[in-house]
Amino acid sequence: MIRLATIGTSAITSSLLDALTKVEGVSFVGTLSRDAERAAAFTAKHHGTRPFASLDELTACIDVDAVYIGSPNALHCPQALACIAGGKHVLVEKPFCANARQARKVFAAAEAAGVVALEAIRPLHDPAFHALKDAIAELGAVRRATLRFGKYSSRYDEILAGRRTNIFDCAMASGSLMDIGVYTVEPLIELFGTPQRVCASAALLDEQTRELTGGALDGAGVIMASYPGMVATLHHSKITNDLASSQIEGELGTLTIEGISAPSAARLDLRVASTNGDAVVYSSAQTSTRAIELPRADNTMAYELADFAQAIEAVRAGMRPIEAPAGTFGSIGHFRDVTLASLALMDEARRQTGVSFPADGGEDVEAGTGLGAGSDFDASADADAIVDADAIAPQGR
Fold first, then answer.
1. 3-class secondary-structure state, position 63
2. Does the first or last residue of the chain, that is N or C, have fewer Cβ atoms within 10 Å of its Cβ?
C-alpha cells in the first residue's frame, strides 16, 4: 500500500483525491494547509486520518510514502525538494516548477534519493490522448498543428475589481501560459518532440494591474513552434473563452480534436484514395470522415495517479526511479524529459514576451539565454540539462 499525503486544499486536490478511489494500492493519509483548521476539515472530508500543520511535520511523518503537491506553482520546487529530502515520492501538479532550472534540481534530487518524481500532466497519461497519437499515423506527412486551450478565469474578475489573487501573480509563477498553455505545450512535445525554433507573443494584462500582479503577466498568448517541414501554433488564454477545436493537419488528411487537456471527441477527415494503374491517387476534393473512438473516464486524474503508483512499486522492487515504468505510455525518464523540454519552451516564450518571476532569480530564464525572438531553440541550453531529444522523438510522422 502507498500512503499518500497532499499539499493544498484547492479543487484540483479534491479532484485528485476523488480519483484515488479508483486506483488500487493507494490510500489517503491527510493534507497539509497553512490553515490548520482547513487542513483538518479537508482531511476529514476525504476520509483521511492525519492533517498536517507544517511542511516539516509532513516530511518527517513515517506514515507517509508519497506526496501530491497541489499548491501554487511557485511553491512546487521548494516543497518537492523538502519532501524528497524526507524520502517521499512526489507527484507534482502542472507546471512541475516555475522554470526548467528548478525542475532539473528537483529531478536530480529525486534520482539521488532513489524516489519517484513525476509531473501530474493529465493528457500524457490519458488513453484518449494516446488514441489520437495512433490516428496521426494515417495523416501522412504532418505539416501543421494547432493546439488550443482558452478558458475565462473567474479570478480575472478579482483583478478587474482591484483585488490580488494567486492565479494572476508573478510571485506565484502563474499566468496564462503556466496555468493553461502548459496543456498545449506538453502535448506538442509528446507528439512531435522539441521544436527547432519558437516565436511567442502575449496579451499582457493592463499596466494598471501590475501592482496587483507583481509585474508583467500574460492573460493570453500564442506560440509558433517550427520543425523541419512542419509548423505548430499553440493558443492559450485565461481571460477569454476559446471555442475552436485543435487540429493536426497532414498531407493525407486532418485530425480534429475537442479538448486537448482531456480529449472528449475527435474525427479524421482523410482524402479519398483511388488507384490509377499501379499508383495510388488521393483526391484533392473528396474526403471521408470517421469519428475516433476515445476511451472515457469520469476523472482522468486517475490515470496519472495509477502511473505514479506503478512507478513507486517498481522502485520498491529494486528498479532505478528513472527507469521505472509509469503506465503504458512511458517511463519516469520519458516523462521527465517531456517536462524539462516543455518548461524550457515556456521559459523561452516568457523571455520573448517579457514575463518573469521572482523564481527566475532576476536573470533571463535559462532556455532563452542568448536567444532572440524566432531564433533557434535549444531545450538543453544549460550544460547540466538532462533532456534527451531522442527520447521524445516525433510520433506518427
1. coil
2. N
Does residue 113 lie within any of the structural domains? no
Q: How far apart are CA 212 and CA 209, in angstroms?
A: 5
- Which residue carries 498531407 as its cell? 251
- Please tell me whether residue 213 adopts helix, strand or coil conformation: helix
- Which are the contacts of 316, defined by CB distance < 8 A and separation ≥ 6? none
Phi, psi angles (nearest 5°) of residue 79? -70, -40
CA distance 168 to 59: 29
Query: Among 25, 29, 69, which residue's Cα sits nearest to residue 52?
Result: 29
Domain membership of residue 288 as a residue range: 124-299+339-392
- Write the secondary structure of 256-291 as one string of H (helix), E (strand) and C (coil): EEECCCCCCEEEEEEEEEEEECCEEEEEEEEEEEEE
Is residue 314 a part of any domain in this protein? no
The verdict on 35 and 134 lying in the same domain is no
CA-to-CA separations, 363 to 355, 359, 368, in angstroms, rounded: 12, 9, 10
- Average pLDDT over the chain reads 90
For 219-259, write each residue's pLDDT tens digit.
999 999 999 999 999 999 999 999 999 999 999 999 999 99
The CA distance from 186 to 245, in Å, is 17
User: Do residue 230 and residue 361 come from a single domain?
Assistant: yes
Does residue 17 contact residue 46 with C-beta atoms inside 8 Å?
Answer: yes
Alpha carbons 368 and 349: distance in angstroms, whole number = 8
Residue 221: name the closest of 150, 168, 157 by CA: 150
The stretches of the chain forming alpha helices (DSSP H) are: 11-20, 36-45, 55-60, 76-85, 100-113, 127-136, 154-160, 176, 182-192, 210-213, 301-316, 332-353
90 DSSP β-pair partners = 67, 117
For the residues 371-383, what does the mean pLDDT come to? 45
Q: pLDDT per residue over 9-55, tens digit each? A: 989 999 999 999 999 999 999 999 988 999 999 999 999 999 999 99
Which triple of cell numbers denotes residue 76? 512546487
